[in-house]
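User: Can you help me understand a structure? I only have the sequence.
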Amino acid sequence: MGWGRPSLARPTEPPPKPSWADDEARKKLYGIELAKHENAFKAACELFEDTSHALWASHHWIYDPVVIASKDLYSEAINLKLLDREQLARKLLDFANEKAPNGFPTVDAKDRLAAYKLYAEVQGFIGKVELNNSTNNYYDNRTMAIRLVKPKNDKLIEASAEEIQPELKPIAGIKLVSAR
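Assistant: Let's start by predicting it. Here is the structure, written out as tokens:
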């Protein structure tokens, strides 16, 4: 009610629940799609052709226990833990050193050698160089350090940019301490 006019909008009741609102199978499918997309509306759009149905489901099913359980089960089934470099190296060594109860190796000699070679490549001892050094396991020697030292004589060195820049004359009294 604003502007001195009576409100034209009538209070309405919330829309009734759709007929499929309590369908457990659809809720489970929605949970799986929610695990894939992480966006509630996009997940609902994958399940429903009608946008209004998808909107209703994304607002009302997001906290439903059946949906959450389905999402968690799907996430656990899909979420396989990947090995890092050290874990892979450990598995390769375990494979190569595997022995039977009588003390003999269970793996053929050529397979053991292949496992040792792959281990050496994974650790970086031989062969292929790793292109993705995102783990910061390398030393980057492309650095430059500037160290300012006091000159032997205590005279101040004064020079203007116009004197130095055209011919790039060296400034007297500055010496190179070390080059890395």
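Now, to help you interpret it: The chain has a mean pLDDT of 77. The helical segments are 24-37, 40-47, 51-60, 65-78, 85-96, 109-123, 161-164. Let me know which part you'd like to focus on.
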